[in-house]
Structures are given as structure tokens and as C-alpha cells.
Request: fold
Amino acid sequence: MHKRQKSGIFVSAVFLTAALGSVPLPALASGPGEIPASFAAAGGAAATYGAAAEIMSYTDLIHRSYDASYKKAVVMQKAIDALLAKPDAKTLAAARNAWLDAHITYSLTEAYRFYEGPIDFAKNAEGDEGPEGRLNAWPLNEAFIDYVEGNPKAGIINDPSIKITEKSIRERDQAADEKDVATGFHAVEFLLWGQDLSETGPGNRPATDYIAGKDNDDRRRLYLTTITSGIVDDLLWLTAQWDITLGNTYIHKFVALDQREALGRILTGMANLAGSELAIERMSVALESGDQEDETSCFSDNSHKVFIADHDSVKNIWFGTYGDWKGAGIVGLVTRVNPDLAKRVTAQMTKTTAALAAIPHPIDHNVLGTPKGSEGRKKMEAAVEDLIAEGKLIVEVGQALGITITVASN
Amino acid sequence: MIKKKVPPLVFAAIAAALVVAGGYGFRTVRSTGALPPVLPVDMPDPMSPPGGDYTTALSNRNAFADPGVPLTTEERRAFSFGNRLFNTNWTTAPGSVKSFDGLGPLFNRVSCSGCHTRDGRGRPPLNGETVFESMLVRVSVPGKDVDGGPKPHPVYGDQISDKAILGVPAEAKVHLSWSPVEGTYADGTKYELQKPTITLSDPAYGPFGDDLMMSPRVANQVYGLGLLELVYESDILKRADPDDADHDGISGRPNWVIDPATGRKVIGRLGWKANQPSILAQDTGAARGDIGLSTSLRPGQNCTPAQTACAAAPDGGEPEISDEFLAKLVTYSRTLAVPARRNPTDPQVMEGQKLFASSGCAACHTPTMFTGHAADSITLANQTIHPFTDLLLHDMGPDLADGRPDYEATGSEWRTAPLWGIGLIPQVNGHDRLLHDGRARGVAEAILWHGGEGEGARERFKALSAKERDSLVAYVNSL
Reply:
């Protein structure tokens, strides 16, 4: 569940076009970053440790992560264009693979949430919110978008009275019901896979849903390209917000923050993704519902990899890594301040990594569809416990650095 | 337990008022005669958190959706799963997911959040919309059921289900039309209100009859209910003044209803007419009435004997919401925190606070209440809260009357609506519709619709200058 930040009726983000080479750069009418300091006050006196290298490295890591996510989204967009140019099993499979890659790469950015940074800032007076809700909201009501089993005429796609534009889709996104998600990765996922009605495999939408000129296929084609381009635009905007070479972007505000305020934001994102969003909203809720398809990437059966990527997003900040890139991780700072605690965090991350890897997948068939007390359920419960423990340790890291951070679950 | 009875004289007076006013017509505003006195009320410190420990700092679109306090891991899991249930789109049985099937057969919406979007407030259809997305119409016929509650229509039951699963006819279509009502403030400024008229068409199960009583209701916001559930009963009863012994023009009576969990008569606290005693009763009532989901507390399908296709439709298991799921849904509903005030010390707001008190609003919209003991939650218990309701029923005059009694509430009585958080409804739900049928566009119109016991406050509001009126409205929106 990605409930905390949603887009919908209040989306009034006016898109301006700024020059970034020849690429149109979407920018929100009012930007993020003007929230009051929420962590710096704790402890009073100035921090005695220096964290400038780690904070700069963190901003570099974020920029790399969003840039990679943007580029994978462009690859996905091209694969979707190829599918629409020649809809067949091969182009559909290629588009699905590109989605998987793009969504996992996006999942690697999720530890940058939860502190009202660019991804989910809120400006109440203007009604603006960050793009998280329209990028990755879930669960979604499939029938709000397209046909479902038993209702061949369902959804915006099959309602010719609605003109399909970015504006008309956004106006309907989560407006009348939180589950009426009209945009983002999971909407694209549904349009590529269809409903997962299979006990053992993912959804199986045919490529023939995208034949130009047939039935409502043109509307489905337009819908898919419209929301895909929305994902690309939002990721480009996020990348720009963390680009130090551009003027008037969030990164300049972030690097100017008091060190403890910056570290408070960094740790808040890590602790809340591990200890709350992933452990509770995505994993515990799925475990408690006894519903085989109550999982975050249910159409593609990819939830297990999302869990791992989300946790990698936390680890990347801790270790200062992203693929082959090596920066200054938070671990270095904590090692200087409290080496024992740093070792405990690293050990917990290793343990959590193993626990997540041990969950049998796909989880719909091997965990969620199994009875209470099953091996699969025990393994996923164990991973939940490890993630909660990890979240608590990150809170401890905050204490060691003179920062009070809060995780929604403890 | 003392059961307070309303003297027959009051009933007679209300009946007479209804006759004189023609039931629903707009009553001419009283322009002469002294208003009853405003009794002094202690207003809370602006910085006092409205929900005590159950106050959330969020003021964005999720302001009504937050537990506010740190929860234990177990509580958080129950809360998050309850939230998931609140957002679940229930499906027709038999469905591929057994734990979430059993919709209808007759229903209004397929999920809780369909009406209470982001735990917030519903509204009437607007701007050419025809479907009731977050509003419904209660119905009954004269008399009382065995519990003393409204007597259901023998065929259509106690609420119009305008939707049904495939193969079962929906009960009827509901229509709403508006007519303008003009008025003038004391300073000469004119205003125009909108009066709704509800009509039914396409009855699928025969005629409604001549004695059908209808009450349109928008979905209420659902935060802070755990606190209202725990307000001391004595705190509520001590404010009741059925005979207006203090001569302030305001009586106030508790509603007494049957608790489905115990069968006992208890004080009603929740709902537009205070006809629900607890969150468990409220949640199970809405599940059955609005979505068509059975629970162990309210078993069986929501069909009347005449609705044969409804009765013959498959159910989603008995009960359709398991006790385990229901417990989590109740935990969720109990735990939603009250939003903090946004700008409580703004000079305009501070002026509005004085005017709120001096205009007599606080006589019913009680600023401060206290919660009692909660065996399982120290954070809900023993709280000083600022709900701005006395949880009592008040005669609101013929213009707001629905003419449909509900337990001891007459057809013109309504529970004082809590005001905490209502200034955030536009932020959360994208509209500013207030009152039971969503007729008021914002706080000022809601005040202008007050009649009956609220007439004095309304007249004092109308006598204010434009600047003062703005301040009072700013205060209410800051709560």
C-alpha cells in the first residue's frame, strides 16, 4: 500500500516547460523543500561530528538512482511503442520485461520517500503534492481502467464519453475512491499483463488487445502511451530536482540544510521504508488478508523482487553504493561515532537480506495462497520481523547522532 | 439507567411547527422579538490538541487517515490491515478471492472508502452528476420496529439500495434537485442558499406507498470516533436539558438506542441522529446496509421477503466479514486521529473564537469533553478533547427536518455535528459540503440553515458585520 502520498482531485501541478537541452523539463508551479526543519532541533547544540561527505554522497546517490530510473522508463516507453507498432507475443513480452526492469529500478529509489522531499512533498495551500501517488499507487481497482472478468465494458478505456488525455486521466486518478488509481507503474502493469486469474502464473493479457482500429483498442493504446509518458515526465522531473548542475532545484536546499536536519531526513526515509512501508503496508497486510493476489505487483507476480529492491534502496544509502558506483555511505559516519552500532546495523542488514531471499516466490502461490502456519508464511513473517528490527536500529542510529526520528510502527 | 422522556407538549409543538411551516418549506426569518440569552462557555486554549494524544500533525490529503500516536507493531498491523479492508472493493460471490467476496446483493457502494474517501466526507452529486457516489437515502414507514428504531418499509427496508449485483434488480433510482432560497444579512448583504429535494423513481419491487419517509445522508468523516465512543455518559447527560430549564432556548436530548452487541438500551453517540452506540455497531450497520456484507453481529443478507432474487443470490459465506477481519476494521476505525488545528492563534481566528462563544454556537457545539476508561487503550482513555459537539439531539427547525424519526430522535432533531477537522474537508475530499444532505456550501451556509434551537445562534451570526462573519467562519475552519 502506498497510501501516504496520493494524487487525485487536488493535482493542480501546472507543468511549465523549461529548457534542459532539447528535452522538455516538467516543473511544478511551486517546488518542494520549503518545509520547516523537523529534526535539527533535537539535542540543541551543534553536531560535533562532520557529515558533509556523507550528505553530499547521498545526494549523488539519489541523482544516480532517479537518473537510472528515468532511463529505464524511457526504455520501457520505447518497448511499449514497439508493441503498439506491431502487437504480437514477442513485442508484448519485450514490453513486459522492460516494465519489470523499469519498476525494479524505480523501487531502488523508494528510501528517498517519507520526509516530504521532491517525491512526496506537500504544499497544502496550493494543493500540490509530489508525484509518488501517481507513479506507484497500489492497490488499484482494475475495473476503473479497463475490462475485467465478467465486465467487458468496464473502465475509462471502454467509456467513449471520456476523452483520453493526460488531464482527463489525472482528474479521475483516486478522485472518488482511493483505489481508483488511473496512473503509474501498476496501471501500466495491468495494461501489459491483465488480471492475474491464474493460480500459478501471472496475468495473461493478449497482444491482440492492442490492434489499431479494433473496438476500443485505440483508446487502450492511447491510454497506455499517455500514462507511460506521465511516468517518464515525473522521473525526469525527480532527476532534475536532485541535479546539482541545475539552478533552483531541491538539491540546493538540501545541501544547505543543517547537517542533523539533512541526516534526519535521510534516516527517516530509510527507517520508514524498512520498518513501516515494506514490513507493514506491503508484507504484513498481504500476509493477514489470506488473499493470494493481495500483493504489490500482483499482475506480474514480481512482488518478491520489489521487496528485495526496496531493501536494497535502504542498503544503498547505508553502504554508499549503487551498482558499480561507490560513494560515502552513512556506515562510515556511524563507524566514527559509534562503531559497535555501525556493526550491528550492518549485521542486521545482512540478516534481513537473507530473510528476504529465503521467501519462496512467486509469493501469491507459495506464501499468500498457503494456510496459516505454512513454511512460506513463516519465512515471510521472519523477514517482516527483521525489517522491523532494522527500522528500530536506524532509529538508534538517529539517537547516536543526536536526531529524533519516528517510524510509523514503533 | 435513566431514560429521559420528552414531554408530549414538545412533540405537539414540533408537530404544530411542521404543520405551520408546511413540513419542509423555508420559514420566514424571525425579525422581531428578543433572542434568548447566551450562557457563558469556557473556550479551550488555542494550543490544546483537539484529540488529546490522538491528534495528528498531518494537514494534507491524508489528514483524516492517520493514527496520530505511535502504535505497537501489532496495533500497526491491525491498523494497516483495517485500512486495507476499508479500501477493499468487495466482489460478487462466488469471487476468486474468498475473503473479499459477498457484495450485496443490494448495495450502495462496493467499499467503505467509496463513500468515506480518505476517511473523509461524502457529498451530493454535483454539476450534472446523476449517481449517488457518497450519499444514500434512508427510508421507513410510520411506527417503530421491535427495538424502538425506525420501522422499515415492508418491501424496501430501511435504505434505498440504488445498486445491485448482476441478476438482482436495484431497488430504485434516486434523484436530487435544488431550488434557491434567498436571504439577507442584517448589514443588507444578500445571500442565496440551495434547498435539495429528493425523489425516487423506477421502483423495482412495487410502489413505495403514500407513507414513505425519506432521509438523505452524506457519508460522515470517520476520524475521532474512538474518542467519541469513550466520552463519559454522565458528561453527555449533564448537558441534556429537555425542558430548557435554563431558558437559553436550547434543550438537547440524548438518543437511546439498542446496542446490537448486548440487546440493551444505551446512549447513541455516532451517526447523523446519534442512532449508533458504538463503532462496532456503526461499522457492522454500514457493512450490511451500504455494502451488503454480513457479520456475526448482523447476520444474513440485506433482503426483505418480497425481494426473492436478492434472497436467492449466493452469499460470500456466513459471515461475509470474518470476526478476525471485523476486529481489525474496528481497530482501524477507533484509531483514526483528529487533525491538529492549523492556525489557532491567528488574530482573525482568535476574534472568531470570541464571536463563536458570544453568538451561542458553543451552547451545543461543546468545545471540551472528556473520555473515560478504556480497558485496552491507555491512549484513548482519560483524554481532554475538543470535539465541538455535545452528542445530544437538537430540534433544528423545519428547514432541516427530514420528518423521519430514528429511535428517540424526532423528524426535526439532529445530533450536534462535531466540528473538529471540518476545515480540512476541502483538502481531503475536494469539496466544502456540510450538513446531513450536503446542501451547505461551506460553514456560513451551514450556519444560515440552523433553525429551531439553532435559530438564536443563526440570528446572532446574521447580525454580525461581514468582517466578523469571516472571522467566525475562519475559526470554525481552524478547528
Notes: Chain A touches chain B through 40 residues (CB under 8 Å).
